[in-house]
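During the reporting period, our protein records have gained a structure token line. One record among many is quoted in full directly below:
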Amino acid sequence: MSNLLNVENLEIKFRTADGTLPAVRNISFSVDREETLCIVGESGSGKSITSLSIMGLLPSNGDITKGSIYLEDENLSGKKEDEMERLRGNKLSMIFQEPMTALNPVLTIGYQLREPLIIHKNMSKKEASQASVELLDKVGIPNPKEKLNQHPHELSGGMRQRVMIAMALACEPSLLIADEPTTALDVTIQAQILDLINDLQSEIGMGVIFVTHDMGVVAEIADRVMVMYGGEVIELADVETLFDNPLHPYTKGLLDSVPDVDDVSKEINAIKGSMPSLNEEIPGCRFHPRCPFAMDICKQKEPPTFEVTSTHYSKCWLQEVNQSEPSNTVTST
């Protein structure tokens, strides 16, 4: 495999009081080195669960029931917790949406930054402290040496998020997963964080998975975009193609619901209805109850994934007229 990350036919289910319910349904995708793949979709689409499965951080009632996750040809889906602990913070890192819940409130910033360096890089405490100062300086935190002795609550939201980025990048990971890391930040800080991730990505050559619902962020940072709905990948394309020629009605709905700052007269058309719950079995296409273009076949038979071009895939029966040989597996170049 030439890709940095390969996710193949992944299925994730949750054990609940209502039985075992599917949260992610047979999805496949890849990420290259120095590539940014944005995963978009409404809340409940499966974006974050997919990311957590790569990290080996699914909730205790969640299981990978099918498929595989390969990082640099190493199968992560079959690894035990102690094996994943050696990878997390080392080859594989994650920035969470809310740093106050991800950072330990009773430990200093310095302690939390030193820990991965001591564990994964075999640094002494003195070496790790010096490296921590350099990391904080790299992510734009003023007076970094003083910050090592402070606790998370003593920093602003933007500074805490920078600390999270510093921790995630401490060991120069091969793959960084960012789960809506700028949602709670104002637009100025958001832009700084996005620039920072992009600069560090170029510097150390890592692949990035960026989970977001903000199509403006997607347009700014993505190389490719994966659209999820109801636990499925329903469209995958490079960012220019997706914005210029969205094929799935759900993708079109996401783009139509974004305000146009250059055309204030543009009407915002929100997608009607809501995301189906995990225990809601929908025959055919899972989007058809909300789709303005739904046909009879959409209500009866699940669509395959159509390969529209070698880099553009859509899980929608509307593509049948253009493609006679559908592909059931999404691949990437």
About this structure: Residues 325-333 have pLDDT under 50 and may be disordered. The first strand starts at residue 5 and ends at 16. Residues 34 and 201 are 6 Å apart (CA to CA).
